[in-house]
Design the sequence.
């Protein structure tokens, strides 16, 4: 049996890291700032889609995504939390199935976060 967990909102809350990284990326690329609620309304979509929606016609999507990822890599473990009960759910599920994660994050970021929270071995 295989059990797939959604990452954001099911196992972790990375909203603070996402918001921080978006604001950082927009700032270092001299783009207009946007509200947290504008960013939050797009969470779950790929970064390119989010930046295109937040900065239409900017022609800087690749730069925005690159600076976002660079910043996110540095702060993600500090500004992401494991949701209550997630570790226990992972541990229990691992006794009956192979586990996987479904996310729009890259595999490397997901792996770093799962290692940080001590559940990657499951």
Sequence:
């Amino acid at each position: 049996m295989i059990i797939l967990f959604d990452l954001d909102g099911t196992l972790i809350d990375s909203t603070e890291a996402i918001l921080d990284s978006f604001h950082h990326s927009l700032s270092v690329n001299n783009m207009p700032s946007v509200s947290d609620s504008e960013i939050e309304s797009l969470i779950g979509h790929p970064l390119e889609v989010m930046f295109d929606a937040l900065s239409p016609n900017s022609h800087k999507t690749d730069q925005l995504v690159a600076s976002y990822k660079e910043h996110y890599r540095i702060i993600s473990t500090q500004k992401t939390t494991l949701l209550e009960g997630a570790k226990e759910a992972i541990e229990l599920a691992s006794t009956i199935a192979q586990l996987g994660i479904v996310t729009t994050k890259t595999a490397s970021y997901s792996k770093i976060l799962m290692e940080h929270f001590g559940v990657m071995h499951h």
